[in-house]
Amino acid sequence: MPLTSLQLQNFTAFAELDLAFSPGVNILVGANGTGKTHVMKVCYAACEASKPGAPLFHQKLMNVFLPSGRRAWRLINGPARREWMREGAPASPKVSVNVFGDNFSIRTVIPIRGFRGERLPTNGAPIESVYIPVKEMLSNAPGFLSLYAEREIHFEEVYNDILLRAYRAFPRAEPDKNRQGMLTAIEESMGGKIRRVDEEFYLSNSIVRSTAMDIEFTLLAEGFRKLGLLWLLIRNGSLREGSVLFWDEPETNLNPTLFGVVVDVLLELQRQGVQVFLATHNYVVLKEFDLRMQKSDNVLFHSFYRTEEGEIACNSTTDYLAIEPNPITEAYDDLYDRQIERSIRGRA
At what angle do helices 222-235 and 157-166 cross, to 10 degrees? Predict the structure, then answer.
């Protein structure tokens, strides 16, 4: 049951946004400060709020965004907030957040002094979701969940949530052929499988100086930790048909030679019915999708940018060459042009 669209009004960086999603892979590009992470967090909060017994949408928004002092008005778009203050606060600015899917609708309105939200019916089909933040958490896992549950620590709830997903037990049934293929590709890239002892994670059966040994995550290269988390989420069933994966900057701390493996896995996940959202600033990630995706794959590129008026807007396309604007490609083109110019000067 994929997410189909998002509508925002006067929320965080956005004055207005009306965005349609692909049921497959959604790739978010744009300069820093154009709201890519905020889009994913809003959608993740909506998925979590669809579950029976879960916090209401507005409550999950607060936990995921963690505004200073948990003051709801800080999530209101800056210009709308300033206008409200100049007018002497006669009424709450019109602020709304709506996320829609097949047989699924969830929305909330943010008054200046709090929330007024509602959970609409999802026909008994809650959306399983996973949000992978930029910061790697498995090496910090021991003791974190109990600390988060018992103390007020300034961590967005996505960090607690991802550890809850990583600690899930494996299903009794062995992975099917497609799932095993993804697991094997990751195992070959990082040199082993992931195992857990109590609350600590290890890379098991890896080869170091020709000696088989387990390596605790605190001693493991951070790029391999990222691959290890993806392996766990596939192996324990967190990523399965009908689920949604949100991944913020998957390229962080990962050697570019491994991007192809990650892209192949993400494309295979969408072929298996997982909806994927990822935000990236990396040219190689974009180009790997362009080169590896098949005609039958559902891949949509969303380019976020600021208009001349300073508002954030978005263009969406299925064609890599039609991404506009594309600051990632523009930066690499500029490097290439400068390299050519220097080479020409050097021959003169």
Answer: 60
Other CB atoms closer than 10 Å to residue 90's CB: what's the count? 6
Query: So where are the chain's domains?
Result: 1-128+241-348, 133-239
Return the HEC string of the chain: CCEEEEEEEEECCEEEEEEECCCCEEEEEECCCCCHHHHHHHHHHHHHHCCCCCCCHHHHHHHHHCCHHHCHHHHECHHHHHHHHHCCCCCCCCCEEEEEECCEEEEEECCCCCCEEEECCCCCCCCCEEEECCCCCHHHCCCHHHHHHHCCCCCCHHHHHHHHHHCCCCCCCCCCHHHHHHHHHHHHHHCCEEEEECCEEEEEEEEECCEEEEEEHHHCCHHHHHHHHHHHHHHCCCCCCCCEEEEECCCCCCCHHHHHHHHHHHHHHHHCCCEEEEECCCHHHHHHHHHHCCCCCCEEEEEEEECCCCCEEEEEECCHHHCCCCHHHHHHHHHHHHHHHHHHHHHC
What number of other Cβ atoms are within 10 A of residue 183's Cβ?
Answer: 19
| Residue 283 to residues 96, 263, 306, Cα–Cα distance (Å) | 34, 13, 20
CATH code of 1-128+241-348, in short, is 3.40.50.300
Distance CA 17, CA 39 (A): 10
Cβ atoms of residues 37 and 156 within 8 Å: no
Please, are residues 209 and 215 in contact by the beta-carbon 8 Å criterion? no
Segment among 6-15, 70-79, 302-311 with least mean pLDDT: 70-79
* Separation between Cα atoms, residue 272 and residue 243, nearest integer Å: 10
Residues 175-221: tens digit of each pLDDT: 999 999 999 999 999 999 999 999 999 998 755 545 567 899 999 99
